[in-house]
Specification:
Blueprint lengths: L5 E2 H4 L5 E12 L2 E6 L1 E2 L13 E3 L2 E9 L2 E6 L8 E6 L1 H25 L3 E6 L4 E5 L5 H16 L5 E3 L3 H6 L14 E4 L3 E4 L14 E9 L2 E8 H22 L5
Parallel strand pairs: 1-4
Antiparallel strand pairs: 2-3, 2-8, 3-7, 5-6, 5-8, 6-7, 9-10, 10-15, 11-12, 12-13, 14-15
Helix pairs in contact: 2-3
């Protein structure tokens, strides 16, 4: 009997807590692996880290998916059959959602203008990196950044849906491979259409701001570091503080 966890985050990416029933609790490499009948916890996938939070107050340290089941890693066991209140760390999830949606818009605009593919994507604790299949200069990326931000501020509705196999054939989505089974498409109007399993903002305006931080040669293309939303603001604040300190040392005006 294969159980599938009901994935509530696809029905509502803004659901912060839910009640659920414990189906299974097994000892794993990372303490205990708790399987619920339904969850608002997003499991690691598509470059996006798994959610953290609590189940009845017990910390969930990571979330993964295996065979359609979402595994919640905890240090304490929970009895199967128990009703739990599952609460995600929303500040962390919203940050990851901003980063993921911002990355889509940058990758989509680069693909449309230059035809390059996103061949690697990593959401680190501080930086987000994208590897593109072709070379881009700082000036070109500045123009991409300008266009992406203008599109963000249009505050368009982001659409995520599961097209039928027939509809999928007609959708001009960018993807690395031939996809089979149920495919989830994320569309950012005018910027990107891509197959994606991650969580996204409902409106582009919630991304707030995209800042491209650096670009360097990587394999036959480039690796770009970027930040969105709250991370971009914190980064720019840190740069400003650093600038101020340097300018005081050099007795030079900042700007």
């Amino acid at each position: 009997l294969t159980m599938e966890t009901e994935k509530l985050f696809y029905q509502d990416a803004y659901l912060k807590e839910t009640t659920a029933k414990v189906l299974e609790c097994r000892k794993g490499k990372h303490g205990y692996e708790i399987v619920l009948d339904r969850t608002c916890f997003y499991p690691e996938g598509g470059g996006q880290p798994g959610d953290r939070g609590t189940l009845n107050g017990i910390p969930v340290t990571d979330t993964h998916e295996k065979d359609g089941m979402v595994l919640h890693y905890t240090d304490s066991p929970l009895e199967p059959g128990t009703e739990v209140t599952a609460v995600i760390d929303w500040a962390r999830r919203f940050d990851l959602t901003q980063q993921h949606s911002g990355e889509h818009m940058v990758s989509g605009v680069v693909h449309r203008i230059y035809g390059y593919d996103n061949v690697g994507f990593h959401m680190g604790a501080d930086m987000v990196t994208i590897d593109f299949s072709g070379e881009l200069t700082e000036q070109q990326l500045r123009e991409v950044e300008t266009e992406v931000n203008q599109r963000i501020w249009l505050d368009d509705t982001v659409k995520c849906w599961y097209p039928s196999p027939e509809e999928l054939k007609e959708i001009p989505y960018r993807s690395k491979k031939e996809l089979t089974g149920k495919v989830r498409i994320a569309e950012f109007p005018g910027a990107d259409i891509c197959a994606c399993c991650g969580t996204h903002v409902a409106h582009t305006g919630e991304i707030g701001l995209v800042k491209i931080v650096s670009v360097e040669k990587f394999h036959s293309g480039v690796r770009v570091e970027m930040l969105s939303g709250g991370r971009a603001l914190r980064y720019l604040t840190a740069v400003q503080d650093q600038n101020r300190q340097v300018s005081q040392l050099l007795s030079a005006k900042v700007m």
